[in-house]
Amino acid sequence: MMAKVRTAIFISGGGSNMRSLVEASQAANFPAQIILVLSNRPDAGGLAYAAEQGIATVCLDHKTFKTRADFDSEAQAVLERFDIELVCLAGFMRLLTPDFVNAWPGRMINIHPALLPAYKGLHTHERALADKVKEHGCTVHFVTPEMDEGEIILQRTVVVLETDTPATLAARVLQQEHLAYPEALRLVSQRLQV
Ligand code: GAR
Questions:
Q1: CA 77, CA 155: separation in Å to the nearest integer?
Q2: What is the CATH superfamily name and number for domain 5-193?
Q3: Residue of the nearest CA to atom 17 in ligand 1?
Q4: Which partner from 11, 24, 45, 165 sits 20 to 30 angstroms from 89, CA to CA?
């Protein structure tokens, strides 16, 4: 069997997407192995889960770094130390410097809670409801220096209901994220294996 792609996941919070990637990767034939979970926040709920699963965890508290470049060069050093080949951003709520992003061409992916190119940035569900769109969803895409701009890997849609609030819509989109992200990781890892 071909070697599994050594993958790191970056989180800032609860890490439910991280969890969906870890669970999928536990299947024998999944082409990626989650080696490392890195958080920029010490209180990220997902860190405990990753540790329980026997995955290495690293916290780089961004408040202890003087500049973004300092934070990113430490993150790069951690990725090199663990021989990481692919990075998944999963609710990682920090912009990364172009130098860091450019070090991972075709090897860094992100999940965004909207159907890109619509609703880049924050508060996607509120904005979708305000516009009265009928369809919303999530996108997994390659990361490029411009935020939420890279090539789309896959999307999943949800129908917007008249009764939706930002919270109910977010919850339905999140369910689709948990399907989309493992599938995208599988596709990208399979491509890296050949
Ligand atoms: C997810 O909805 C993800 O798409 C979003 O944050 C949430 C993280 O949830 N990401 C962004 O908004 C990126 N700009 P999780 O920590 O439970 O995976």
A1: 32
A2: Formyl transferase, N-terminal domain (3.40.50.170)
A3: 16
A4: 165
What integer pLDDT is reported at residue 194 of this predicted model?
Answer: 78
In this prediction the pTM is 0.97
CA distances from 37 to 2, 19, 47, 160, 164 (A): 23, 10, 7, 33, 33
Q: Indicate which atom in ligand 1 lies nearest the CA of residue 11.
A: 16
Q: 40 C-alpha vs ligand 1 centroid, how far in Å?
A: 14
- Structure-token match 């596709």, residue found: 187
| Torsion sign (Cα): 172, 178, 180, 181 | positive
**pLDDT tens column, 37-64:** 999 999 999 999 999 999 999 999 999 9
1 CA from centroid of ligand 1 (Å): 33
Measure the CA–CA gap between 125 and 169, rounded to whole angstroms.
Answer: 7
Q: How far apart are CA 108 and CA 52, in angstroms?
A: 25
Q: Which residues are part of the catalytic machinery?
A: 112
Pocket of ligand 1 (CB under 6 A): 11, 13-17, 90-91, 111-113, 174, 177
